[in-house]
Specification:
- InterPro entries: Knr4/Smi1-like_dom, Knr4/Smi1-like_sf.
- This is SMI1/KNR4 family protein.
- Pfam families: SMI1_KNR4 (PF09346).
- This protein is α+β, with helices and mostly antiparallel strands and 168 residues long.
- It is built from 8 helices and 5 strands.
- It has one domain: SMI1/KNR4-like (3-Layer(aba) Sandwich), CATH 3.40.1580.10.
- Helix 1 packs parallel to helix 8.
- 33% of the residues are buried.
Length: 168
């Protein structure tokens, strides 16, 4: 995943669609210092959850990652992530009406790891009895709804593909 994030950083800075800090430009890196194992464990304890392996790997590489363009969400440091219901309860309420209540129930248990105060969220949805694996959603009201990814790597590969197409 480190290589993929490096490639995204290089392409995003090359494209220059977004304003980056001088440090990001000089280092050609949109990430930050890694989260420590203790920080990860404390956040898991606070949220009463064990993160999926790929998200733990991401945090061990970078504790946050700037948006590579104006479309993708920023991935936040773990001290800022929380359950969506604690950050945007109105969204959950809006998607809990008849006909789309299944989306509302997924949003109710989701953890927002990216896009706080942005147009799109990146959400992790823990497994349960009806869905035994983690879900990875990019979610926007204007879309509307969710775009599901198999995992973080598939999401970041899609971002890199988009950046490559934008440069061509």
């Amino acid at each position: 995943m480190r290589d993929l994030l490096n490639q995204i950083s290089v392409k995003a800075i090359e494209l220059g669609d977004f304003e980056y800090t001088q440090e990001q430009i000089e280092n050609i890196w949109l990430g930050t210092k890694p989260a420590s194992e203790k920080e990860i464990q404390l956040t898991e304890k606070r949220l009463e959850i064990e993160f999926p392996t790929d998200y733990r790997k991401f945090l061990s590489i970078t504790n946050g990652f700037s948006a590579p363009n104006s479309i993708e969400p920023t991935f936040h440091p773990i001290n800022k992530i929380d359950y969506l219901k604690n950050i945007d309860s109105f969204l959950i309420e809006a998607y809990s009406i008849d006909g789309i209540e299944n989306i509302g129930s997924e949003l109710e248990k989701s953890i927002i790891i990216g896009g706080i105060n942005e147009e799109q969220y990146f959400l992790l949805i823990p497994p349960n009895l009806s869905s035994p694996r983690w879900k990875y959603w990019k979610f926007a009201n204007w879309h509307p709804g969710e775009v599901e990814h198999d995992n973080l790597e598939s999401y970041f590969k899609e971002v890199l593909h988009f950046l490559n197409k934008s440069i061509e």
